[in-house]
Amino acid sequence: MTAPTFHSVADAERLAAERLAPDVRDFVSGGAGDEVTLAANRAAFDRVSVVPRSLVDVSGHDTGRELFGAWSSMPLAIAPMAYQRLVHPDGESGVARAAAAAGVPNVLCMLSAEPIEDVAAAGGPHWLQLYWLKDRQVVADLLRRAEGVGCRAVVLTVDVPLMGRRVRDLRNGFALPPDVRPVNIGGDVGERRAGDSAVARHTSAVFDPSLKWRDLDWIRERTRLPLVLKGILHPEDARRAVESGVDGLVVSNHGGRQLDGAVPSLDALPDVVDAVGGRCRVLLDSGVRTGVDVLRALALGADAVLLGRPVLWGLAAAGRQGVAAVLDVIRQEFETALRLAGCRDVEDARRLRTVRA
User: Which conformational region is residue 301 in: left (phi greater than 0), alpha (psi within -120 to 50 degrees), or beta?
Assistant: First the structure.
């Protein structure tokens, strides 16, 4: 396939929409409930203006930063996203190869259609994302396997005690095709029922909604890897997480796919950053679409962002090459925005002032 030319992430989104089946397109792009939070995530970015600095020598600049022991070419990692092979045969391995080539970390998703060993073999720094499962042995095995493939961190998603009510999937009676399965944990996600979601049924069967703070100790006893909690929005939860010794947080409302009506992640970010007080890394996801969005998140205190749906749009549009093209667009946009804002590096960006409309 010829490498695509994207001038913006929106170009990839349009091409992906043409190539995906309607129910798959809805699964990727949809949110929970009336999708109020899904829309609010994007609106939150549009309300933030950055105040550039002037008369700064930006002839030399550096867009990279260290994230959990590895250097990233941008303050960005690929978000964990389930069943990437659903949108293109290149799947998780294709995304991983594009991330490695771009020099950014890739978060291996527990709900992957490929074994984490195969995805990690693509190279580059990678982290493992986990959900809290009823079968603890599966979780323990995944932690062991994560260390075996050289993961640099464990990202525990804490905002899915049960799956949000995703109306598009219910209307479509969404289920996975026979060649896409949660190979790392097992289970049936392929039985199609009218008015029901096979993905939600699988979640209900295998996820444990009893996750508590003391369960973090169980994870620490089974891995030496840094622990990151994904799905933190309340500053008190952020403070307690730091006190419990976590190494990082992801301020996230799951891309608007869990609690509809939840605060936009970007709006929650400054209070979480204040609560953390520099004691651990703070990342952000949900709504990031451009390199300017990356700059906005940094200016509001984030150390880095996770990029989600744009990666899937690139994958759907043109496989691994499409992901590479999306990452290149974000890189160009971020580098341009960084320099136009009078910043020489990521830390300069984190000292920028912002104005909210």
Answer: left
Burial class (CB in 10 A: 0-12, 13-18, 19+), 307: buried
For the annotated catalytic residues, the residue numbers are: 254
- At residue 280 the predicted structure's pLDDT band, cuts being 50, 70 and 90, is very high
Q: What is the DSSP string of 57-94?
A: --SS----EEETTEEESSSEEEPP-S-GGGT-TTHHHH
Binding residues for FMN: 80-82, 129, 157, 230, 252, 285-289, 308-309
Q: Tens digits of per-residue pLDDT, 153-194? A: 999 999 999 999 999 999 999 999 999 999 999 887 878 999
The number of folded domains in the chain is 1
327 within domain boundaries = yes
DSSP code for 256: G
pLDDT tens string 76-101: 999 999 999 999 999 999 999 999 99
- 3-class secondary structure, 255: helix
* For residues 244-255, average pLDDT: 98
**Two tokens at 317?**
């549009």
Confirm whether 2 is domain-assigned. Answer: no
Q: Are 265 and 251 in contact (CB under 8 A)?
A: yes
Residue 2 pLDDT exceeds 80: no
Rounded Cα gap, residues 148 and 20, in angstroms: 35
List the binding residues for glyoxylate: 131, 166, 254, 257
- 253 burial (CB, 10 Å; 0-12 / 13-18 / 19+) is buried
Q: Is 0.90 topped by the overall pTM? A: yes
CATH of the domain at 272: 3.20.20.70
> Can you name the residues that pair with 77 across neighbouring β-strands?
306
Q: Which domain, by its residues, includes 28?
A: 9-356
Residue 283 lies in a domain: yes
> CA-CA distance, 191 to 145, in Å (whole number)?
29
Residue 253 CA, chain-centre distance (Å), reads: 11
**pLDDT value of residue 1:** 58
Assess if residue 4 is contained within a domain. Answer: no
As given in the structure block, the two tokens for residue 246 are: 């976590």
